[in-house]
């Protein structure tokens, strides 16, 4: 099972829940507000004419960064940004935004998140793929029905982790793998976990 940022054609990459081991959530990032999905993050300037490298966080960059596309940003004060042109160079996406005409202007955008509204992203057809915002807020119970808390955050650090805010206070980190999270019921607002001894201590 893997949580996500922007995936589905042209959407933000979902988190996929593997049976075990490490999960990689492509397209996931921290920073954007609730309801926003990351499609990229602005990197360093390329050249002196305003081009920027973009760390792509979407499975459909040709659509998301097509000329004329307007992208919201986080922080919001940096945008919106309109794509003037985009091209691939040595495996990296280079983008020029309207009004960003030199290296100095490009440098000011460095680190900016490029985001889309989560309502624009269709749900994944894969039952083991979830967007972060689908998981956040779900009630967490154990397989025997014991109430644990609520998913407060999804962290992407090599392995996807659910940050569960405990009912009695404190937090627990639960690896997002099917062996430990056998059931995710988004419509029902709940997920079940099967924690090994010590995970919730």
Explain what you see.
It is a single chain. The chain is elongated, with a radius of gyration of 19 Å. Strand 10 (139-142) and strand 11 form a beta hairpin. The protein has 201 residues and is mainly beta. The strands form three sheets. It has a six-stranded antiparallel beta barrel with strand order 3-4-7-6-5-8. A six-stranded mixed sheet has the order 13-12-11-10-15-14, with no helix packed on it. The chain starts with 5 loop residues before the first strand and ends in an 8-residue tail after the last strand. The protein folds into two domains: 6-120, Elongation Factor Tu (Ef-tu), domain 3 (Beta Barrel); 129-193, Roll (SH3 type barrels), CATH 2.30.30.240. The protein is 7% helix and 41% strand. The longest helix is centred in the middle third of the chain and has 6 residues, at 103-108.
Structural category is mainly beta
Unreliable residue stretches: 1-12, 18-30
Could you give the order of strands across the largest sheet? 3-4-7-6-5-8
Oligomer: single chain
CATH architecture of the largest domain: Beta Barrel
Approximately what portion of the residues adopt beta-strand conformation? 35-45%
How is the main sheet built? 6 strands, antiparallel, barrel
Instruction: State the distance separating the first and last CA atoms.
Output: 24 Å
CATH fold group of the largest domain: Elongation Factor Tu (Ef-tu), domain 3
Number of strands: 15
Overall number of structural domains: 2
């Amino acid at each position: 099972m893997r949580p996500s940022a922007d995936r589905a054609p042209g959407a933000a990459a979902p988190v996929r829940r593997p049976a075990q081991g490490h999960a990689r959530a492509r397209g996931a990032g921290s920073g954007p507000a609730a309801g926003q999905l990351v499609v990229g993050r602005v990197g360093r300037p390329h050249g002196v004419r305003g081009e920027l490298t973009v760390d792509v966080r979407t499975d459909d960059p040709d659509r998301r960064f097509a000329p004329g596309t307007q992208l919201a940003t986080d922080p919001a004060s940096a945008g919106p940004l309109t794509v003037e042109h985009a091209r691939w160079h040595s495996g990296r996406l280079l983008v020029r935004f309207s009004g960003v005409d030199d290296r100095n202007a490009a440098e000011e955008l460095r680190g900016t998140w490029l985001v889309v509204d989560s309502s624009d992203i269709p749900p994944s057809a894969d039952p083991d793929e979830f967007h972060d915002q689908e998981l956040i807020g779900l009630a967490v119970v154990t397989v025997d029905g014991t109430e644990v808390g609520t998913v407060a955050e999804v962290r992407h650090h090599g392995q996807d982790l659910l940050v569960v805010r405990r009912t009695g206070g404190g937090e627990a980190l639960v690896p997002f793998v099917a062996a430990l999270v056998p059931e995710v019921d988004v419509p029902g607002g709940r997920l079940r976990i099967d924690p090994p001894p010590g995970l919730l201590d």
